[in-house]
Amino acid sequence: MENIILDCDPGHDDAIAMIMAIASSKINVLAVTTSAGNQPYRQTLRNAMSLLTLMKKRDIPVAYGNRKPLVRDLIPGITMHGITGLDGAELPNPDFSPRKENAVELMNSIISDHPRNITLVVTGPCTNVALLLSVHPEIKSLIKKIVILGGGMGVGNIGLTEEFNMAVDPEAAKIVMESGIPITLAPLNVGFEAQLLDSDIENISKIKNNDVAKAVTGLISTYRLSFDLISRDFEGVPLYDPCTIAWLIDPEKFSSRFCNVEIETKGELTTGETVIDYYNVSKRKPNAEVLFHINQKWFANLIIESIKKFQLQ
Ligand code: BDR
Ligand code: CA
């Protein structure tokens, strides 16, 4: 069983990642923390709590993250996720309260209680984890692993070679990538392959008696339209963030390579780029397992089966 803390900024694809994690018998979600990313921090917190209310998982502690990236102002991901961050579905109002302590303090106490037994899954900017490592440096050796959705090798989604999560808070990403903690990085290269095709979306829409299926159908149909706005000609709709959870469930369904990854923080054209040394030209020590390819059929099926687990009795 993989014990995780999900640090996210829901976000359509964050929502699917959360659903998969909660549905999986291989993953135990000990807490959800939220970051400023797709929306400002209050809204991502609210969205995470709405999703947990939808799944009837009010017992999972939720904590709010830092108000903004470490040194920059937040530019939220409105183009892709709309003005709520989860446009396209009518989600319930949260019917429980967040924790009083913030994301950093909640992560710190859970990791201290479960030394070397917690994996941090980061599907938003790395701000909260960077703060955790800076405020509580002694926690480093107690973190089992960090799985991050972010970056790209030669590809981007908010610039030619910049991916949203890394570009929103490159200084935080740098702290995390240089931490020495075992890291798995899912960049856009694998995210672009992690698609739901029209036939998959149709299968989800046909699942009856299931509020999660209804919400996901609305979310994905709307998210799909956002890709038309940015003129990306994908066959289906890519779901980046769920790559993290899918990898924890079955890493064999991915191809990967250990690489040195550095974060560009001062580039004129490339701030936030993950510089992935695929051929180890720099001779620097690899600091991340980078995922490159995924079995799309397996991935889509995993999402569908995860949703089915929320069937109403
Ligand atoms: C990342 O950016 C966000 O819009 C998504 O939720 C995902 O985490 C992809 O670049
Ligand atoms: Ca996200």
Automatic annotation (TrEMBL):
Print the keywords alphabetically: Glycosidase, Hydrolase
Q: Report a single Gene Ontology molecular function.
A: hydrolase activity
Q: Does the keyword Hydrolase apply?
A: yes
Membrane-spanning parts: none
Asked if Hydrolase is a keyword of the record, the answer is yes
Which InterPro entries does UniProt cross-reference here?
I/U_nuclsd_hydro_CS, Inosine/uridine_hydrolase_dom, IUNH, Ribo_hydro-like
Superkingdom of the source species: Bacteria
Q: Start and end of every Inosine/uridine-preferring nucleoside hydrolase domain?
A: 4-300
Q: Would you tell me the protein name for this molecule?
A: Nucleoside hydrolase
What is the taxonomic lineage of the source species? Bacteria, Bacillati, Bacillota, Bacilli, Lactobacillales
